[in-house]
Amino acid sequence: MNCWLLLPFMLGIPLLWPCIIAAENSKTEEVRHPAGSRLRIRRGWMWNQFFVPEEMNKTRHHIGQLRSDLDNGNNSFQYKLLGVGAESLFVIDERTGDIYAVQKLDREERSLYTLRAQVIDTTTGRAVEPESEFVIRVSDINDNEPKFLDEPYEAIVPEMSPEGTLVIQVTASDADDPSSGNNARLVYSLLQGQPYFSIEPTTGKIRISSKMDRELQDEYWVIIQAKDMIGLPGALSGTTSVLIKLSDVNDNKPIFKDSLYRLTVSESAPVGTSIGKIMAYDRDIGENAEMDYSIEDNSRTFDVITNNETQEGIIILKKKVNFEDQNHYRIKAKVKNPQVDAHLREYHTEASTTVIKIQVEDVDEPPVFLLPYYIFEIFEECPHGSSVGTVSATDPDQRKSPIGYSITRSEVFSVDDNGTIFTTNPLDRETSAWYNLSVTATEKYNIAQISSVPVYVQVLNINDHAPEFSEYYETYVCENAVSGQGLFF
Prior knowledge:
The protein is mainly beta. It has four domains: 49-139, Cadherins (Immunoglobulin-like, Sandwich); 147-247, Immunoglobulin-like (Sandwich); 255-341 and 348-361, Cadherins (Immunoglobulin-like); 368-460, Immunoglobulin-like (Sandwich). Helix content is 0%, strand content 44%. It has a four-stranded mixed β-sheet with strand order 5-11-10-7, with no helix packed on it. A four-stranded mixed β-sheet has the order 13-20-19-16, with no helix packed on it.
């Protein structure tokens, strides 16, 4: 309660002592008399604070009263209100000093108004009191619901994370006064997301409460509610959604789709030929689903490589196969992930396996000579039809086709169906000591299947020529030559 106390007149000057009955703060101020003398008076000019609740619906809400003790009720004093908000938000009854709020106030827009009060003596038009500041504070009511700050929320957490793993922290803000009771004290709760997630009521930290498998479900929508007034009746609330995605860990080993693969390879296929593909399936994704294939092949005929794009295993021919030697193979393939973290090896204890049966396809191959080349000898001057030697070729296929033989571009030799080479003209070593022949073998069941072999024939010498002088010699002898005398050429 504010008052003005009338001090005794001294030196003809009426002194006013403004005071606050409940206030202890004071100060001493020096007052100068017009005649030049000075008087020290005790001032206690501090106004009580006024409070007005926000959001009041009344057109005139009484806040409090300003009144001077000099006011004897004869209506000679006039009270005035000055400052920001005066007349627009706050008015004062000029006669009684009663202050009213005439508009609805919002503490979140402005929580404090500093005004000035003045008392005028209407008979003199002079101020009875010096201007004084006082404060009107807007008191808070719980009129703001909590709002989440950083929406939308999204978090990523590895699948199979243990209970208690922190996922994300959500934070809500309440515009009400945190010093006014529980209006801005928030608690968090989970409306959707159990039993996999939980939230700390006071911090908004979302944690895992149960292990989750990405291969069963890879994302979850969690709905969080924030309530003010620590959740008491009448509390306001706000909600937000959190999208939680599970990132993959390598908790699944690759498994072959089929337990048996049947492949074929032609015996004519060159080394390096791709003869087929095998495929395993991994429920993981990305690098956790990369494959590494291997095979067990005692014959060392086949190999496997991994296609890094498709993650397929490609079976290739490591060395040539022959239907007549071996017409089928049985090998075993394995698959694993190339990189597995130590703490996840329990999921990869035994590699997946499959069986691959490979059938070798027979190809109609050309005849094969027993030797890569032949060398025969025959004496010159042998009669027509003399045997030089025999070449031999066979059909490597199962049907064993009969073989026919021929000699290419030779007028001296011929060959029969048994592969025996005969002379067709006399041979003269002195004319040609060697003959280079090419004998062709042809399958009679398929004349397109042919092969050739080189045959070298050496003509051996016989003593079929008398010695001859290289030139004609003419000799001379004297008529009287004696026995033993040399001749002259």
